[in-house]
Amino acid sequence: IVKLESLLRDAPDDMESISYLARIYKEIWWDHWTPIAEQGERMRVAYSASNWLVKSIETYLLGYRINLNHVYSGVNALTLVALLDHLSRTVGGDKADADVEAVRRQFTDLKGAVRLAVEAEVQRNPNDYWAMASLAEVAVNLAEDPDEVARLYKKAITISRRQMFMLDSSMQQLKQLDALAFRPPFVQAGMNVLNESLQASRQANEPREEQPQAKPATLSQVFLFSGHMIDQPERAEPRFPPVMEDEARQRIAQALDKFNADANDSAVTAGAACGGDIL
Q1: In whole angstroms, what is the distance from residue 123 CA to residue 115 CA?
Q2: Rounded to whole angstroms, how far apart are CA atoms 14 and 59?
Q3: I need a labelling partner for 201 at 20 to 30 A (CA). Which of 64, 93, 99, 177 fits?
Q4: DSSP output for 158-198
Q5: Can you tell me the distance from the alpha carbon of 276 to that of 202, in angstroms, rounded to the nearest whole number?
């Protein structure tokens, strides 16, 4: 937090720093209540720690106001405001915290703005899984029919070509909402679709009995990779422009081929950036 705040003093419009900072506040909030087994107590603790939730929302909103096309910030702000509103109504009691009420009052305006921004992003990038998954998450928050949620997650799965990391990331988000009893029919509709696809992907990746198992190598190799995210459209100085994706993929494949990488080896990435790490 200290390092990111220092960066933002020098570059207050840096979207990556703002997003990371908001994510840290959100994870601090998660840590208060995720270990609790009983749902009622879990929700009570989640609301009692809402100061961290409010801080995360305010930080996401800071980024979203700087760049209304940054749908990641907008969708996170929308979901967290909806969660805060849900917790305030179910376990908050009659006397609400002033900061909580100030954030809740922004919900109406945020709904329309974020939905419009995500729909525009899907139109610009119709084959982008994260854009379609964001639209599905917006539907979890705002849809009037759970079937709409299921339909949008099915579209996202088609775009993902059942890449398990993408699907599991969306599933973890829905599990967090489910843990706080947030809009159960809508959350469950998304989880059902993702569960079905995840199970099918796992079965497809299981080795068939008739295939001989490869003999483990005596010595295995470890490949360590660190790369960049694909540049956002608004980035002033190119670092990893989208046009370089194919070449980056080829260079990675060449490096692995050079050392005869196979199933006996291990690969480690620094994170899961939507760019070098996923390639």
Answers
A1: 12
A2: 12
A3: 177
A4: HHHTT-HHHHHHHHHHHHHHHHTT-SHHHHHHHHHHHHHHH
A5: 24
Provide mean pLDDT across the span 2-6.
Answer: 94
Give the long-range contacts of residues 163-170, CB within 8 A, separation 24 or more.
163/129, 164/198, 164/201, 164/202, 164/205, 165/272, 165/278, 166/129, 166/130, 166/133, 167/194, 167/197, 167/198, 167/201, 168/198, 169/272, 170/133, 170/136, 170/137, 170/194
Q: How far is 46 from 44, CA to CA, in rounded Å?
A: 5
CA-to-CA distance for 24 and 46, rounded, in angstroms? 16
Q: What is the pLDDT of residue 45?
A: 97
The tokens describing 157, both together, are 């799965």
pLDDT band at 164 (very low <50, low <70, confident <90, very high): confident
Please give the pLDDT value at position 108.
86
Residue appearing with tokens 């929302």: 57
Give yes or no for residue 79 having a pLDDT over 70. yes
Give the total residue count for the chain: 279
User: Residue 2, Cα to own-chain centre: how many angstroms?
Assistant: 23
Q: 219: buried, middle or exposed (CB in 10 Å: 19+, 13-18, 0-12)? A: exposed
Helices and strands of the chain, counted as H and E runs = 12, 2
Structure-block tokens of residue 159: 């775009």
d(CA 274, CA 12) in angstroms, rounded, equals 23
Rounded Cα distance between 241 and 39, Å, is 45
Backbone φ, ψ for residue 134 (5° rounding): -65, -40
pLDDT tens for 26-73 read: 999 999 999 999 999 999 999 999 999 999 999 999 999 999 989 999
Residue 117: closest CA among 78, 154, 149: 78
